[in-house]
Amino acid sequence: MTSQIPQPAGWPFIGNVLDIVTSFSCESFHRLAQQHGEIYQLNLLGRKLILVSSHALVDELSDDKRFKKAVGGALMEARDLLHDGLFTAFNHEANWAVAHRLLSPSFRTSAVQQTFDGMREICADLVGKWMQNDDRAPIDLTIDFTRLALDTIAYCTMSYRMNSFATDEPPRFSEAMSAFLRECNGRANRPYLLNILMRGRNAAYCSNIEYMRGVAKAIIAERQCGVRKGQQDLLHALINGRDPKTKGGLSDSEIADNVLTFLLAGHETTSATMSFAIYYLIKYPDVLRKLQAEIYAVVGDQSIEYEDLARLHYLTAVLRETLRLQPPAFVRVVYSVEDTTVAGGKYAIAAGSGIALLIRETQRDPAVWGTDANEFCPERMMNGRFERLPPNAWQPFGYGARGCIGKNFSWQEMKLVLCTLVQQFDLALADPAYELELSQAMTIKPKNLSIRALPKRRKWC
Ligand code: HEM
Fold it and tell me: Rounded to an integer, what distance in angstroms lies between the CA atom of residue 2 and that of residue 340?
């Protein structure tokens, strides 16, 4: 005998739409999980969505024989731009497997290592900007990290210089991408007819798509014209690679889909994680002091080298703990392959049902993380404790075949950048009373986070 999955009372036709602030669903999902427990369901304009927030259920649902990635809601809308690119492809689409096979070698540790110097070059742009900030004006951290992450992904995977630090304006590409993703979110949560009527929004949506596809085409055209032709990077693999299985390659339009996929997936999450990490380091001065001591011992006042990365254990723990409390991809959605039950047979789930795994909630489950689950404590990620965690307790990079392909890349970038900034600057909040607020498009990042970065007078004091 199964039990009914709890559901907040809704309204005729629209169901539970009013229970969700669509521009900030992360907070709504959190509130509803507090009210209804580890599993609840919503009726969103006739579309049923089940949401789970305990580690036990996420662990059970992390089984890609029973539950597969669902491309629905905002992700489905994002296909207007990205089509069947790696991130938005349906599981059955042949191009996912082709692109996955073509691109996986570019993300092996040894291949990512080749991008270290390029990452250092872009990081130098950021350091230069902060050094020249003579009047010590507040720095909008998320915008600078967006510049950095966008330039890094474009330069280190496509040898293309975005030069986002050359202007005071936020990078146009990431502005267009954020507006596009916000609108994908909005469209997914509005009735179809209402979407058709919103002419102004639709025009902006289309013009953002056109602009971004233009950027992708320019990047590809530059390479096809022979600029940096021999460069063995991800763009080379996209343009020239032949799938070992089908012997086929990708068409120009499919190459553009994946260029845009990487520009999107490669910058939003990484820049958000670095912003959250700096926030926690400033808020927890003891953690910052320990990290400074480690960096002093491993790197000294020299430029960080690739070999140093593996020796920065405390920095690894700081990043793991940041990604536990604030996973930028705070939710992932799967569907049930067949009729099944979960929670030891307690709840029935019909084949095809969409289930949202609220990773930000799971990664704070007291059953795994204890009563201080909401505290920032890198020590819980060290000295074998991370390795002893139950399966799927820490899952900021997704799961299985559709998990993050760029994990090694982002890990290298984040360690290089955070090490360099902690080494070279004294960091403080511009407003010492600031408490973390979130903003959300497809992912979450800190809202209104401004800092001051003072170059260290002596590098180590
Ligand atoms: C801290 C940084 C990052 C985090 C937290 C992160 C997180 C994730 C998550 C959770 C997924 C799975 C999404 C789902 O199930 O729907 C994913 C997929 C993906 N990520 Fe990342 N990511 C990060 C950095 C990157 C970088 C730097 C790149 C590119 C260089 C990248 C490229 C991708 C791609 C292409 C996919 C789709 C993979 C597929 O479906 O085959 N990510 N990422």
Answer: 11
